[in-house]
Amino acid sequence: LHQNEKKKLVAQSALQYIQDETIIGVGTGSTVNFFIEELKKSNLRLKGAVSSSEESTKRLKEINIDIYEANEVSKLDLYIDGADEINHNFEMIKGGGAALTREKIIAQISDKFICIADESKYVKTLGKFPLPIEVIPMARSQVGREIVKIGGDPVYRQNCITDNGNIILDVHNLMINEPKNLEEQLNNIPGIVTVGLFAKRKADILLLGTSDCVKNITL
Ligand code: DER
């Protein structure tokens, strides 16, 4: 199965978790785009969605789904999103789509985080994918120096301003054996808005697209 077919399959299998007349959290990225396509084809009647990016908002509006602001809901039952990497403890690297801040906020208010991913994302150790961090523009150089101090190699993501007006540094060469510790350590660096490590708040269910089926994995 081609990678896109795996993405489509896992997107489709996420529908089974959705109840009619509910508001769901929607992530960002190509796998989520397939999920939005599947939503359009389904006869699910959603009350609405809290979206993690302008890009997903545009696509949700195109299929006439009402958009709710995060401030309008106290919590969500479900959050559907992809990942750049997810380990066997369901900790993730996210931010490839530059939406990590709103993704992390919506994940925080959601009871169940369903990660939809093709098997290439499923890894033993996080860190082969460069770790995205969202940074206040004026702090870029000093955050870069702090990252070097802890052994990372920060690369400025060209031509990328996030929905929140910030920049992204992609941190290479970090082998992340203690995701939670690293997330907390990076959270403390002034100027870092969001770390693309989802370890304090992990996924709850992984729908994994493999070469012949969708594996529904829980911890
Ligand atoms: O930006 C993100 O965190 C997204 O979830 C993303 O990186 C996953 O993208 P993909 O579904 O296009 O692989």
Write the layout of secondary structure elements.
Blueprint: H1 3-14, E1 23-26, H2 30-41, E2 48-51, H3 54-62, E3 76-81, E4 85-86, E5 92-93, H4 100-108, E6 110-118, E7 131-135, H5 140-149, E8 153-156, E9 167-172, H6 179-187, E10 192-195, E11 197-198, E12 205-209, E13 214-218
Parallel strand pairs: 1-2, 1-3, 3-6, 6-12
Antiparallel strand pairs: 4-5, 5-11, 7-9, 7-10, 8-9, 12-13
Helix pairs in contact: 1-2
D-4-phosphoerythronic acid (DER) is lined by residues 27-31, 81-84, 94-97, 99-100, 103.
Can you describe this structure?
The chain is an alpha/beta fold. The chain is built from 6 helices and 13 strands. Strands 2-1-3-6-12-13 form a 6-stranded mixed sheet. Helix 1 (about 5-15) crosses helix 2 (about 30-40). It starts with a helix and ends with a strand. The model has no long low-confidence stretch (mean pLDDT about 95). The chain binds D-4-phosphoerythronic acid. D-4-phosphoerythronic acid binds near residues 29, 31, 81, 83 and 99.
Bound molecules: D-4-phosphoerythronic acid
Which strands sit side by side, in order, in the main sheet?
Answer: 2-1-3-6-12-13
> Mind describing the biggest β-sheet?
6 strands, mixed
Instruction: Count up the helices.
Output: 6
What is the mean predicted local confidence, pLDDT?
97
> Which stretches are low in confidence, meaning pLDDT under 50 for 5 or more residues running?
none
Oligomeric state of the chains present here: single chain
Beta content = 25-35%
Instruction: Give me the strand/helix succession.
Output: HEHEHEEEHEEHEEHEEEE
Keywords: Isomerase
Binding site for substrate: 28-31, 81-84, 94-97, 121
Subunit structure: Homodimer.
Active site: 103 (proton acceptor)
